[in-house]
Amino acid sequence: MSLPTTEVQPGSQPQTLPVSAATTKHLVVKKFGGSSVADAEGIKRVARRVVDAHNAGDEVVVVVSAMGDTTDELLDLAGQVTDSAPAREMDMLLSAGERISMALLAMAINKFGASAQSFTGSQAGMITDGIHGKARIIDVDPHRIRTALDKGHIAIVAGFQGMSRTTNEITTLGRGGSDTTAVALAAALDADVCEIFTDVDGVYTADPRVVPSARKIDRISSEEMLELAASGAKILHLRCVEYARRFGVPLHVRSSFSQNEGTWVLPGADDKITTQEGVALEQPIISGVAHDRSEAKVTVVGVPDIPGKAAAIFQVIADAHSNIDMIVQNVSTHGTGRTDISFTLPIVEGAEALAALHAAQDRIGFESIEYNEKIGKLSLIGAGMRSHPGVSARFFAALSEAGININMISTSEIRISVVTHADLLDDAVRAIHRAFDLDSEDEATVYGGTGR
Ligand code: ADP
Ligand code: ASP
Ligand code: MG
């Protein structure tokens, strides 16, 4: 049976009926990130934890990422072979990372006396569109997983990958995509909870690798989590949070290295829970600070300052399938009738976007393009920002006191973002975290991972 769970279309109705309701056991999906299965010891540690849950009577589906920094290493390897790898072959290469960890984890679980079977994304019924490198889930058909569970097995699924029925090719979901695999399976199997196991104790008010005094958040609304993830907090894949909210999947983010309770991401619209309890009504409520090093800044220099030119530039970028983030248009340089337009986009999409822009240079009539990957973006996330002028004043004062020069600014009701030089980003994050009184007395534990 096929369960249509559409990732992309807003407002689509959840179709999360269980494939079989043969049992009243709890069904849990547990996702383990790369740092949790970085080596043989890690794989055995995870296997023991999974077996414990199985022995306690739960039905357990495990989604696993590639070991340690395998995905980055495979990308480096491809880069040494060619600077223009075909997208299809890139997905064949990258999907191998999760195949290694899933099989090793299944072996370790079998060794510990429980029975496990591993499945690739396509075997597990993760059906995607055909866009290599950033495929979106269009259907989940987990009948093989359901059958494995019914037979008493633990099912291990390779995260981050799927298959297109249109092209019959293997696809990957984009960096960090195993989180989304886990939530999509949890929705399709009607799981009771989706646990995201990682190398920190949950979602913090900032990345604990950058801000050791960051505070753990016990419960966070999906709106706040969406904004943090969208602003670069890589603790959760953005699409995983969107998916969990749409299909009502409770998410528990926690460490695979401790038994500590982690952070619950609450899917309901009414679950507005914030980090600062007891604040007076109508005070701005800050959720946290996110940062992002994955974007580059493009400046299109000397654009004719007449209607239609911005539209032409962004059409070219859209046709190159790039996701634009911040946009700034400078005032027209006096007397020249020309202006500069700057925007940010993911570094991984930079080369294609630049090639497309260069190809359109004569038609659009701009003078040149500047491209800078040495930038970082910092975002302060919280409710009620726009209606509290004091927030911006405090924000910019803190950056100024820390000697941080700002390149670009954008704001919304719940976010202030700035772009700085990449080397200043960590200092900027710490300065803002401190300025908004988010620092805690305790030092956050980072159990593993390289931060890559
Ligand atoms: P995994 O390999 O388990 O998927 P990731 O590296 O993708 O792990 O995500 C976990 C990392 O996210 C943490 O080690 C931490 O450095 C980083 N991170 C960024 N922002 C936050 C945040 N607000 N709270 C917790 N961790 C964060
Ligand atoms: N292994 C993939 C990555 O490193 C997917 C994931 O870990 O979620 O991006
Ligand atoms: Mg991750």
TrEMBL record:
Residue intervals of the ACT domain: 298-383
Keyword rRNA processing listed: no
| Listed InterPro entries | AceGlu_kinase-like_sf, ACT-like_dom_sf, ACT_Aspartokinase, ACT_dom, AKii-LysC-BS, Asp/Glu/Uridylate_kinase, Asp_kin_monofn, Asp_kinase
Q: In which pathway does it act?
A: Amino-acid biosynthesis; L-lysine biosynthesis via DAP pathway; (S)-tetrahydrodipicolinate from L-aspartate: step 1/4; Amino-acid biosynthesis; L-threonine biosynthesis; L-threonine from L-aspartate: step 1/5; Amino-acid biosynthesis; L-methionine biosynthesis via de novo pathway; L-homoserine from L-aspartate: step 1/3
EC numbers on record: 2.7.2.4
The protein's matches in Gene3D superfamilies, at most eight in alphabetical order, are given as: Acetylglutamate kinase-like (3.40.1160.10), VC0802-like (3.30.2130.10)
Q: Does the keyword section mention Lipid metabolism?
A: no
UniProt xrefs under Pfam families: AA_kinase, ACT_9
Query: Which reactions fall under this protein's catalytic activity?
Result: L-aspartate + ATP = 4-phospho-L-aspartate + ADP
Q: Identify its protein family.
A: Belongs to the aspartokinase family.
Record protein name field? Aspartokinase
Native species of this protein?
A: Arthrobacter humicola
